[in-house]
Write a structure and sequence with these properties.
194 residues, alpha+beta, 4-stranded antiparallel β-sheet, 5 helices, 66% helix, 13% strand, elongated
């Protein structure tokens, strides 16, 4: 990009602007990678990134909300190789979106399995309750249904952890492939700029 002296000698510099919202974990990746496509941080929005305007909590498939960050960039409109840089940037954005999807899938199946087990446990406890309030109360059926009911309320915690760890181990190689692909894309973009 141009420094202050070059701008005054050449006159007006026209910029195009881009705003992206990514998870906090991927914000450093985007901050490091977007300059490879000719983008620079927009100095007019740097204060927003550090303040509360640049961050917001947004619900996801996980038990706790994920923090997201809004990043603001600008790029000189008269940039050389702009078409190819834009194509590479779209590939980069696609890889980042796939990384975000992989992160979400890490807990999705574990959450569903834990909820199903908890729901089944609740059904057993409901059956146990109906058996105890029946006229006359059926105590043996109450005990028989209460044991799997309580297990259905206790086991989901351990089931969730185990399935989430297993899925994380499965997707780790896929994430590494995406990071390698991002590295290759950024190298190509950097070569086009220099």
């Amino acid at each position: 990009m141009m420094n202050g002296n070059e701008r005054t000698q050449k006159g007006h510099v026209s910029y195009e602007y881009r705003e992206i919202t990514v998870s906090r974990e991927l914000s450093s990746l985007c901050l490091d990678s977007y300059p490879c496509f000719g983008w620079e941080m927009d100095p007019n929005h740097e204060a927003d990134m550090e303040g509360s305007h640049g961050r917001r909590h947004c619900p996801s498939g996980a038990a706790r909300p994920k923090e997201t960050v809004t990043l603001y960039f600008r790029r000189d409109r008269s940039l050389c190789n702009k078409t190819e840089l834009t194509r590479l940037q779209r590939n980069f954005d696609s890889c980042v979106a796939e990384l975000q999807t992989l992160e979400r899938t890490k807990t999705t199946s574990a959450t569903i399995a834990a909820l199903v087990v908890a729901l089944i446990g609740t059904a057993f406890l409901a059956g146990s309750t109906f058996a105890v309030v029946a006229e006359p109360p059926i105590l043996w059926l109450t005990i028989l249904l209460a044991v799997p009911g309580f297990l259905g309320w206790i086991l989901p915690v351990f089931l969730y952890r185990r399935l989430a760890e297993k899925k994380a181990a499965e997707i780790e190689p896929l994430k590494e492939q995406k990071y390698d692909e991002i590295d290759t894309i950024c190298e190509k973009g950097s070569r086009l700029l220099h």
